[in-house]
Amino acid sequence: MESxxxxxxxxxxxxxxxKIDQRVKELGAKLNEDLKNTRPIxxxxxxxxxxxxADLFREIKMEAEITFIRVSSYSGTExxxxxxxxxxxxxxxxxxxxxxxxxxxxxxxxxxxxxxELKKQNPEKVLFASLLLKPDxxxxxxxxxxxxxxxxxxxxxxxxxDYDGLGRNLKDIYKLA
Length: 177
Ligand code: IMP
Ligand code: MG
Fold this sequence. Notes:
Blueprint lengths: L2 E4 L2 E7 L1 H18 L6 E6 L3 H9 L6 E8 L1 E2 L2 E2 L5 E3 L9 E9 L3 H11 L5 E9 L12 E5 L5 E2 L15 E4 L1
Parallel strand pairs: 3-4, 3-8, 8-9, 9-10
Antiparallel strand pairs: 1-2, 2-12, 4-7, 5-6, 11-12
Helix pairs in contact: 1-2
């Protein structure tokens, strides 16, 4: 098993890059189908989703916009459970089809918060796309419209996901060994 050391911990490959690429293409195709006849605005949640957002957005064939927001709710390998802040959107979302792009939904605290915040602007629709979902960690009854992979409650890094700021540049997704 291919492994890497990040700071004090060893991680091993969990989802190889080729599998991620293929799944991102599938999600893109689904979005193209579902959102045809709309001009969606994608909202990528920094920092974790930047790589997924870039790859997913390149699959989008209709006229579409992308913008970036930032929420902070996590440190080290354990969720703090509190969403600290959001750096807002300047675009007007009223009447728009909004697609939030996240790297991972863990407890769902961030997802709930973001959906509520963006709905305050009266969009036509708010959809949620997450590369990863930890169904066993979820503590809200939310529906994630587009999920790349359901994963167990392991700590993951790579393809945008970090361990204390490191590991985002890895092409594969790794899990704590
Ligand atoms: P939630 O609010 O508990 O759903 O946490 C969401 C955020 O926590 C994600 O956007 C990630 O930034 C971070 N996070 C959750 N699980 C992991 C993980 O396994 N690795 C890296 N970051 C994670
Ligand atoms: Mg994140």
